[in-house]
Amino acid sequence: MENVSTNGVLTHLSQLEVRARSPGGPETQRSRVKELRAEAEELRGLREQLKAEIRALKDPCFRQHLQELRSSADPRPSEDPPLLQMMCRQLDLKDLLHGHHLIGGLDAVQTRQGRAVCVSLQTTYEGVFLETFNLELELKPRVRIGRHNIPPFVPLQSLAEQSRLQTDPGAFLSTLSQHLNAFVGRRRQLQLVKEQHASVEVMESNLPCSILVLLFTAQTEKAAVLCTLEYSDHGSRLPGRVVLDCEDKQLLKSPEWRSCCATLMKTPVHRALARMKKSSLIL
Amino acid sequence: MKIISDNGRFDTFRTLLQMLEKMGAENADEVKMLEGHIEHLKAEITSLQHQKEEIDRDAMFHFKGPMLDALLIVCRQTRDKDEEVVMSKLKEEVEELEKDLRLQTEMNGIIVENCKIKTLFRSEGKWIRQVCVSLQCSHMVFQVDFQVSETKEGPTSEKKVIGLNVVLDSDDLQNCSGFLSRVEESLDLLLLFRTLRNFSDRCDERSRTFQHLQEKFPSVVSLPGGCRSEVMSLRHPELPGCVVFIHWAVDIFTEGTVAPKINLLTKISEKALELFPSQPVDGAAEAFQSLLRILGPEAAVECVLRSVSLSQGDNVWGEKQLKQS
Question: How far is CA B204 from the centre of its chain?
Fold first, then answer.
């Protein structure tokens, strides 16, 4: 009888052991509890941290104090704690950098421990901020253009040579920014022509938007006029040459059409077309 | 093998077994409870993070890293951050920013002296900010105020300049005023700064040339308006009635092209003109334009200078050019 009971106990024990070792068993459950307790504690800590940060960020006295400190003309070094002064300095620097970014249209960040500079070039047209292009300039041993996402029709190498990249990277970036802005400007003008002037047909355009051929209908006799705009200077948003062609050669000799040629050379094309429509020159 | 047969020990075993089983059940409960608690905490944290992002987005100041730690210390919202450590980390960040600022200043060629940004308007998905920047570009000091509006609609966002005003605190205002009003209308920030920088470079070039020539020919050259002015006058000390003026303007054309426009003007007394009917004098201005095209601004001006100072030898060719007109 004793044997049966002890045998029963041992079997029971070994069964429990198996259960304990198996997933869902008490031993794994104990370690799971430990894990969960630790996770809960971590999350509680994070929650308290966030609450403290929100309280600090919302703190009205602090904001007022900081505002006063930053707007006061003369610094009062003795009165304010050094940490607060250092915070003001950080905020001032951030604003100055933001100012640079807005006026220069470029954001330069040193990378690879000062061995390279990553530049983001902003493009705008008529006040609207359009796309950004990126370029890496390796500085050592010589200044060299690294990776970039600038369209291939922009002649980077010749721009670099022209603006003496080695001695004045700022001048190179300024010229590059001009070319990129000119390209984006021409492309935007073409978009606006398509959007605003449905009566004008775009016959031809190319990738760098340096050639534009338009077909419009003159009011007089509803004659078709073919207009070719050549932007030979890729750094410009205005055409270098305008050629008008019409079957009725006499039409184009009139003073209105002559002045319209001049307008097309001096005004962005979508605006020039609007003027021509307004003066009833074209449909 | 000694098999436990003692009834007392068997009972202990049985109690132990019962406890183990009970613990197993309790553990399962605790696991459930903890898992529920954790889910709740995660939800709370997500909502707090959203709150924080909203405050951050509204604010002019963005706090993270050492700045956030410093904020917590200053607002007394934390007890376990070491002020010295935070201070030194913040100092490191400030030094990095100063390095970035030096780099940007070099790249842009303009010194930003002051930049104030203020939120004028804020609503769901739209901001309007006012930016006032004071800048210095070589000798030119100016202030630019503009408004930027930003709209976010789902994945698309649009940022644009909606107002622009430039105040130039400098004597070069007349030449720039046409360009400035055009650019204020077209809201072209980038063109504005690129052009002002080029304009400033050209003015510096003129100033350097004038100064250099005055040092080289002090008895002949005078700068009635100072070395930053547009006019240089040349006269031979022994011919007081005859003055040659070089007017060197810097013009800004459409699209921001900047180019010098240099003209030569003569002021000769009536008496002298009677004595020497003045083919060379009449044609001087045109001849100067040819010289300009061939030699460029500095060399052409120096040529005229040498002629006026009646110096022999060096630039006989130049003198011949003038006389041939």
Answer: 19
- Classify burial at B291, counting beta carbons within 10 Å of its beta carbon; exposed 0-12, middle 13-18, buried 19 or more: buried
The set of residues, in sequence order, having a beta carbon less than 8 Å from that of B134 and lying 6+ positions away, is: B112, B113, B114, B115, B141, B142, B143
pLDDT digits (tens, 9 = 90+) for B4-57: 556 666 777 777 778 777 777 777 888 888 899 999 999 999 999 998 888 776
CB proximity under 8 Å: B 17-76 to A: 17, 20-21, 23-24, 27-28, 30-31, 34-35, 37-38, 41-42, 44-45, 48-49, 51-52, 55-56, 59, 61-63, 67-68, 70-75
